[in-house]
Specification:
Length: 472
């Protein structure tokens, strides 16, 4: 273990700003290398799988891909079993999904796949991570408190100033401060106050809006698939979509989405009609006879944002920034939780090599975190086409609608040809690439082969079993 640097006491301390999923994973990553870890959280966290004020997006559809789930399991052993026991479902890709795409029905696989998603409410997912993490005696939660500043200078961060009940409680000394406070992070302002500025920010906002509602699933709907009706691209027209996710306690979480000019409303009576008028009415038909359990919740917080901390000319020792404080993602991509887990796992890997007080640790971690962050946004760095009212920071080249979907080259066609007539799409190289990338088990560069494989209508069949899902 590295010897304490000059000015450090014998106690190794870490402070984590933010008690959400990213913060809890960061605490789990750092605690094997610290004597004390303090999590500072602005909200008073619930003592169970219940909503919290600082996570309004929890009301909308969330999926955790198997790559992210495995990263969380490595940090918090036993959490996957806890999710399943509490009613979450492990849904295989692609046999456990029914998806209508712009080219028709996505072909469901018959063979099992190692890739899956965890389907449950965000409240349940977060609660079981939080409960297991806080069982570690070296981790203490300071909720109902707010970090208001970093302590230190441009060379080293030595702690955080904390405000509790409107009173400056104290300065928490730390060898390492981890900002996992989410999209509302104040790190840019805090760094500026230490003399570090010029960090580039980038935002892409498609204007997507969400409306979500929970329904009681019908009887005999065990092992129900995820149902997804994707947007049908039309040049300069709003895109609209829907997804139905089976969650715990026999319920369906249904989220509708639309870009500017085609947004779903917050009016309960508009929810089913919106779903029925999509490119396929399947989701609308499923919920038309189901019993709603909640009112409609809406959100417009769907912009992709990126802060390039790793590109800063100088970086203080003792500060690491993770999760949504580095990048926020459109929920449609299902990347945020997985990227946060990968970032925490990379922090753990670096700490295993050098320890908590090693000079240069924070800089190395920040550079490492950039890799999975870019994987999350890299495939969408350039929008396929501009939508009405689309705003963006940086220049993007407009792509005509007819170029929205790549066409396979002859080489791609030969490479991706099924091994035999009637082969299951799961035998296809392109299908395997697609599943691995979606599940965050392979880098995004493999998506080119998958896109080529699934670009043409011939890659889809109507044999999805969708008709069997519809109420008669």
């Amino acid at each position: 273990m590295t010897e304490p640097a000059e000015g450090f006491t014998g106690m190794r301390r870490a402070v984590v700003i933010g008690g959400g999923l990213a913060g809890m994973l960061a605490a789990a990553a750092v605690v094997p290398f610290a004597d004390e870890v303090t999590i500072v959280e602005r909200d008073v966290l619930p003592q169970g799988p219940e909503p919290r004020r600082g996570l309004p997006q929890a009301k909308h559809a969330h999926v955790l891909w198997s790559g992210g789930a495995k990263a969380i399991e490595r940090l918090v052993p036993g959490v996957t079993d806890r999710w399943i026991e509490a009613g979450a479902q492990k849904i295989p890709l692609m046999s456990g999904m029914v998806a209508h795409t712009p080219h028709g029905w996505y072909r469901r696989w018959k063979k099992p796949t190692p890739h899956y998603l965890i389907a449950c409410s965000r409240d349940l997912l977060d609660w079981h991570v939080r409960d297991l993490v806080l069982q570690e005696p070296r981790i203490r939660l300071l909720d109902g408190a707010e970090a208001v500043a970093l302590v230190g200078d441009a060379r080293r961060v030595t702690g955080a100033s904390v405000l509790a009940q409107g009173v400056l409680e104290r300065e928490l000394a730390a060898d390492l401060v981890i900002d996992a406070s989410g999209c509302g992070s104040r790190s840019l302002r805090w760094l500026s106050s230490l003399g570090i500025s010029g960090i580039h920010e980038r935002t892409v906002d498609s204007g997507l809006a969400y409306a979500s509602r929970i329904y009681q699933a019908p009887t005999r709907s065990d092992n129900f698939p995820v149902v997804n009706v994707q947007a049908a691209p039309r040049d300069s027209q709003p895109e609209q979509a829907a997804v139905l996710i089976p969650i715990e306690n026999g319920r369906w979480l249904v989220s509708l989405s639309g870009t500017r000019g085609g947004e779903p409303t917050a009016d309960d009576k508009d929810f089913v009609p919106f779903a029925l008028q999509l490119s396929h009415p399947l989701v609308g038909m499923l919920i038309a006879r189901a019993t709603p359990l909640t009112d409609v919740s809406t959100s417009r917080s769907t912009a992709n944002g990126r802060r390039y901390f790793e590109q800063a000319q100088s970086w203080p020792e003792g500060l690491v920034i993770l999760g949504d404080a580095v990048a926020t993602y459109n929920p449609a991509y299902g990347q945020g939780m997985s990227v946060a887990a990968f970032g925490a796992h990379l922090l753990s890997s670096e700490l295993k090599q050098v320890g908590l007080r090693e000079p240069g640790l924070a800089r190395r971690v920040q550079h490492a975190v950039a890799r999975p962050t870019e994987e999350g946004v890299g495939g969408r760095r350039r929008p396929r086409r501009l939508l009405p009212g689309h705003s963006r920071a940086g220049a993007f080249r407009r792509q005509p609608a007819h170029q929205s979907f790549p066409r396979p080259s002859d080489q791609d066609r030969r490479r991706l040809r099924p091994r035999r007539n009637g082969a299951d799409p799961g035998d296809d190289h392109g299908g395997q690439c697609h599943a691995a990338v979606v599940a965050r088990r392979a880098p995004r560069r493999r998506m080119r082969a998958a896109e080529a494989a699934f670009a043409g209508p011939s890659a889809y069949t109507a044999g999805t079993g969708a008709a069997e899902l519809c109420p008669r």
